Amino acid sequence: MPKNSANVQVLHDLPINLKVIEAAEATSAPFQTKSGFDLTSLLPHPGLPSSVQRRPASVILIASLIDNPTNLGGLSRIAESFGLEALYIDSLKAVETREFKNTAVTSYKHLDIKELKVHAVPGCLLRFKEEGWEVVGVEQTDRSGILGEDAQGSQEGVVAGDYECAGTLPRKCVLVLGSEKGGITSEILAVVDRCVEIRTVGVTRSLNVQTAGGIALYEWWREWGGRL
Ligand code: SAH
Questions:
Q1: Is 12 in the pocket of ligand 1 (CB under 6 A)?
Q2: pLDDT above 70: residue 145
Q3: Taking 50 as the threshold, does the pLDDT of residue 160 lie above it?
Q4: Pick from 56, 63, 62, 58: nearest CA to 100
Q5: Tens digit of pLDDT for each residue in 189-218?
Q6: Which end of the chain has fewer CB atoms < 10 Å from its terminal CB, N or C?
């Protein structure tokens, strides 16, 4: 029997990061670490998806305006990673394409992907609103709040019902993304409750839509992950 088989058994049911710490404590062999490296920093940050394990998150992503299957596959991967309730796309045929699968990997097998045609988006958003969802366009407009900032431009005090929803995200959140070429259409902008914009400083006019979706979803978890 190997010398530290007892340790191995004790460690068996622990999450992987705890195993690392327990293993370090259980053996006299020094861990190979950089100077000053704190092992507890290996633990997941409280409030982020990896630690909360609470799915589905109360977020729905509307990606019907997006054509490019590579982008849709990336959004599927992001949506599944962040535990979304559902992803809406214009045509489920996109899921069958090689480009989609290349970026989505297996995410689409674990995610509720629904078909929502572009022309039906405004009506669908109105129904979500009736059901108590707040609909937020992720878009650069002259009225967008800055993502993560409240009406006063502060990142503090984002307590539900206690802020003037400028760039912070609601708990029950429908996020709408725009098309690669034209962004969110005026018909859809007329229906959303408000828009949020990701602050950038470069010369490039906009972010890739997958990137924008990922940043917005990370922000939702930053705001709500610790309070689910
Ligand atoms: N070419 C379009 C923008 C396309 S970018 C235009 O210039 O109008 C595709 C989508 O990504 C946008 O519709 C929006 O949903 C999202 N996006 C890109 N950059 C963004 C930013 N800085 N803030 C918020 N959303 C952004």
A1: no
A2: yes
A3: no
A4: 63
A5: 999 999 999 999 999 999 999 999 999 999
A6: N
Residue 61: which of 144, 158, 135 has the closest Cα?
A: 135
Cα–ligand 1 centroid distance for 42 (angstroms): 34
Residue nearest to atom 3 of ligand 1 (CA): 183
Cα–Cα distance measured from residue 135 to residue 207, given in angstroms and rounded to the nearest whole number: 21
81 CB-contact burial (10 Å; exposed 0-12 / middle 13-18 / buried 19+): middle
Residue 89: other Cβ atoms inside 10 A:
25
- Are 172 and 132 in contact, with CB atoms under 8 Å apart? yes
At a CB cut-off of 8 Å and minimum separation 6, what does 21 contact?
39, 40, 42, 43
pLDDT at residue 137 is higher than 90? yes
Q: Is 183 in the pocket of ligand 1 (CB under 6 A)?
A: yes
- Starting at the edge strand found earlier in the chain, the sheet holding 173-176 runs 113-115, 84-89, 57-62, 173-176, 134-138, 194-197, 145-146
Give the residue, out of 70, 136, 207, with the most ligand 1 atoms within 8 A of its beta carbon, to mutate for a pocket test.
Answer: 207
Site to substitute for ligand 1 among 136, 181, 206, most atoms within 8 A of C-beta: 206
Q: Which of 77-81, 115-119, 148-152 has the lowest mean pLDDT?
A: 148-152
Of 87, 117, 90, 118, the residue nearest 104 (C-alpha): 87
Mention every residue, 6+ apart, whose C-beta is less than 8 A from residue 201.
Answer: none
